[in-house]
Amino acid sequence: MRVSRLVLSAALGATLLTGAASAQSFTVAPDDMTLGAAKAKVTVIEYASTACPHCAAWHSEVWPAFKKKYVDTGKVTFVYREFITSPPALAVAGPALARCAAANNNGGKAKYFAVIDKAFDVQAEIYGGSDARAALLKAGQAGGLTEAQFDACLTSQANFDAVTERVQNYAERDKIDSTPTFVVNGKKIEGEQDLASLDAAIAAAGK
Predict the structure, then answer these.
(1) pLDDT digits (tens, 9 = 90+) for 85-104
(2) Is residue 140 in some structural domain?
(3) Which of 21, 84, 94, 145 is in Cβ range 3.0-4.6 Å of 175 for a Cys bridge?
(4) Nearest residue to 94 via CA among 49, 129, 54
(5) Reported pTM
(6) Could you list the residue range(s) of the whole structural domain that residue 73 is in?
(7) Does residue 25 form part of some domain?
């Protein structure tokens, strides 16, 4: 899903994006959410939005096989970086809940990814007309949040500000303007990728 400058401006206060990302942009940062071996030969970064249908499709159709082949075997360090697409409220709610789950009772990264996975699962329900709060509550509960914790998380301006600050950084520093975008050992690949395409990119990166 291409992110328009209007959406970025409205949701993030972003300016026009110019220039190229530096190599430093694609190194693993302390606040990154990661899976797999910490120092694998290949690092794959995904920039995705929980409001993006293409991202949801990738996580449904490709992610399980990708995770089994590369993440669970320690061949790849996988990094998930949050992004905002329209509607911004849904795009921010997913990662906000995931960060709350990770921080709740030392839930950690496993809880973070449980929320993100479920947020993608319920995206179609929301776009199909289901109650957004009820659907998002399922995502929060997947990460161990109670309904009270869910409400506290989504009514915290600080939580929303934290997400938008990270995304602002990705947009400006990493020059990301579409989702999903993948970066394989520093090489950017835009758009929804099938497993064969990622296989090729990872093979080339590992040489």
Answers:
(1) 999 999 999 999 999 999 98
(2) yes
(3) 21
(4) 49
(5) 0.88
(6) 5-16+32-198
(7) no
